[in-house]
Design brief:
The complex is a heterodimer of chains A (370) and B (292). Chain A has 370 residues and is an alpha+beta fold. Chain A is built from 8 helices and 20 strands. Chain A starts with a strand and ends in a 10-residue tail after the last strand. Classes of the chains: A alpha+beta (370), B mainly alpha (292).
């Protein structure tokens, strides 16, 4: 039994099922990120943990205590909202201590808790201000302070960074991670940003259409996506997916694809199990960083396959150069070192790290196990 | 060339502007004219009005008509002046405005932040009550007041006005609170605040503008109401009914100066409310009606 148990939780509105039998056990101190596109049910699940939405069926328990029907204030949770939801008529100090006041904590203790949190978040100098006089980042800190001061069992974050500009978002992301390292609290964090999910979490639940598509560590999710949705949703630029046929050559399974000129090219699979798929069509998934120039290829990889193909476009991004080519009729993006010598329109020798390639069943869209 | 055309554009702008101000000034004067007539004639002795020009300033200044209107003028059959009726009006208006505003705020709070099944229909029905003319409810209201034993009393009038005003105050607060972020209410719930605590600590402190609108609207309507007053006032009739009885008396000399003074006295409280709170009125009205 975990610290926070979500057991077969389903949510329906009338006849519409927005969440289907979600089953997640969160350990103490874990940072669980619920990630998925809009309407996948991630916020609904968070609100159900918070007690702001009722549970249609299933159970939610925190520290072994059944939470179904328990009022939000009695669950010992704290929530940071997307809009921060700071009380506009109260000062920062009043905002932070409002929850303690409502729970009947005496004034001296409230002041002590306030001082600690203010020091931790470096907002001492803002305590007398109203939320209207704060910048976005400062509001974000106050909202976190309001959650921290309660010292809850579980922190719930509902897209807390999406109202910040790009630079501040990265800074605050690091702040949150630091805070988690320092306080070792249990966090459930909702976001639609897959980079936030990858960087912050200890585990990720990728959600789509009310189903948890995959639950796992960031590395598992990234390297062994359960299905095509997870594979393409996580990672930026997205994983390249191209139709391929499995063929046998010298006793090893190869993926047969066509290059820009229409000529057939073969890439040897690392997975032994692919032999069972001989003669059948699969979807080959290769992450952009697994396609490089030969010098930039991962030296630890046991299976670098070479591929000659014409370059369509190059996009130098400073740190990397993105190279686009056509394979099996699809645009395929390769991520190269910034100084890779690639010229648009010319044929180039690509190195494909097939250890990192995955294949999907075109019918079920599930990953073919190695 | 271009400089010259610019200059003409500026001067044309000036002419237009002067014209606009002139028109506005004329309208303002036109609207102020009745008040001017009332004010100057209320401080003239009666012969000066009957024998002279209504528009001219008083030759002899007297506050006698004001004193008479307030405390000695013949209202119906009693020479009481308007004073007791003024007090009746105050006793009616203050609780009626307060109660209808508080209930309207609570309604708005529930209808936006504590949604329940068919709340849209409930709101629709409340909104519908804004369109019911006074005359239609007279007889049913008389029956209800009679059954409650409140007929002809100040509490009876308060009840009538609260019931009638509730639709409007609910509409104001509902639209105002619809624009209020629900996340704040949720945050307060997690913080452990209950239904009334959230209302009192989170919503009310930011409800200033719409409260001003509600109070002004209710105050003006209830103070100026004649029909409910004359129908259900009994012996505790409000100022408007008394003013009518003063002005419309068909016996004796028509004391125009006293009538003018009485009419100003009757209008004074609403004028005062507008002057004190008027600048919030438009702001609040916009906030309540446009958003949501």
């Amino acid at each position: 039994m975990g610290f926070l148990d979500i057991r077969n939780v389903t949510k329906t509105y009338g006849n519409v099922e927005v969440l289907h039998e979600v089953d997640i056990e969160v350990e103490e101190g874990e940072f669980l990120v619920l990630v998925g596109p809009s309407g996948c049910g991630k916020s609904t699940l968070l609100n159900m943990i918070a007690g702001l939405e009722s549970i249609t069926s299933g159970d939610i328990a925190i520290r072994g205590r059944q939470m179904n029907g328990v009022h939000p204030s009695k669950r010992n949770i704290a929530m940071v909202f997307q809009s921060y939801a700071l009380y506009p008529n109260m000062t920062v100090a009043q905002n932070i201590t409002f929850g303690l006041e409502m729970h009947g904590v005496p004034k001296p203790e409230r002041d002590k808790a306030l001082a600690e949190v203010a020091k931790l978040l470096q907002i001492d100098h803002l305590l007398a201000r109203k939320p209207g006089q704060l910048s976005g980042g400062q509001r974000q800190r106050v909202a976190m302070g309001r959650a921290l001061v309660r010292n809850p069992d579980v922190f719930l974050f509902d897209e807390p960074l999406s109202n910040l500009d790009a630079k501040l978002r990265v800074d605050m992301r690091t702040e949150i991670k630091k805070l988690h390292h320092k306080l070792k609290t249990t966090i459930v964090y909702v976001t639609h940003d897959q980079i936030e999910a990858m960087t912050l979490s200890t585990r990720i639940a990728v959600m789509y259409k009310g189903y948890v598509q995959q639950l796992g560590t960031p590395k598992e999710i990234y390297d062994q996506p359960a299905n095509l949705f997870v594979a393409t949703f996580m990672g930026s630029p997205a994983m390249n997916v191209l139709p391929a046929t499995v063929v046998m050559e010298n006793g090893a399974a190869h993926a047969a694809i066509t290059d820009a000129e229409g000529a057939s090219q073969r890439l040897r699979f690392s997975q032994q199990g692919m032999a069972q798929w001989m003669g059948r069509k699969v979807l080959l998934g290769i992450r952009p960083e697994a396609i490089t120039d030969p010098e930039g290829a991962d030296r630890k990889s046991g299976n670098i396959q070479h591929l000659r193909n014409r370059v369509t476009v190059t996009e130098p991004a400073g740190s990397d150069t993105f190279v686009t080519m056509t394979l099996s009729g699809k645009d395929v993006i390769a991520r190269m070192r910034a100084d890779a010598n690639v010229v648009p329109g010319q044929v180039f020798d690509f190195a494909v790290n097939m250890d990192k390639a995955v294949a999907f069943d075109p019918e079920t869209e599930a990953r073919i196990p190695a | 060339m271009s400089a010259a055309s610019q200059e003409t554009a500026v001067s044309a702008g000036r002419v237009t502007r002067a014209f606009i101000y002139l028109v506005l000034l004329l309208f303002a004067l036109y609207y102020l004219l009745p008040l001017y007539v009332m004010a100057v004639n209320s401080v003239k002795p009666l012969p000066e009005i009957t024998g002279g020009n209504m528009m001219s300033l008083p030759r002899t200044f007297t506050i006698e008509p004001w004193l008479s209107a307030w405390s000695t003028a013949q209202i119906g059959v009693e020479p009481t002046g308007l004073k007791p009726y003024f007090i009746n009006s105050i006793l009616m208006v203050a609780p009626a405005v307060a109660i209808s505003t508080i209930l309207g705020a609570l309604n708005g709070y529930v209808l936006t932040k504590w949604r329940f099944k068919y709340d849209g229909i409930v709101f629709g029905l409340l909104l519908f009550s804004c369109f019911i003319p006074f005359q239609i409810v007279l007889i049913p209201m008389a029956v209800v007041l009679g059954k409650l034993g409140l007929a002809g009393s100040v509490p009876g009038l308060v009840l009538v006005h609260v019931v009638y005003g509730l639709g409007f105050t609910t509409l104001y607060y509902r639209n105002y609170y619809a624009a209020f972020p629900t996340e704040l209410v949720r945050a307060a719930m997690i913080d452990g605040a209950g239904f009334f605590r959230i209302f009192w600590r989170i919503l009310l402190p930011v409800s200033g503008p719409i409260t001003v609108v509600s109070v002004i609207w209710q105050f003006t309507n209830i103070w100026n109401d004649f029909l409910f007053g004359v129908s259900f006032g009994g012996t505790r009739q409000p100022m408007t009914v008394a003013l009518n009885n003063l002005v419309q008396s068909s016996t004796g000399v028509k004391e125009y100066n006293v009538h003018f003074a009485g009419a100003i006295l009757a209008a004074l409280p609403t004028l005062l409310v507008y002057i004190v709170a008027g600048r919030y009125f438009v702001r609040g009205l916009m906030a309540g009606s446009v958003k949501g």
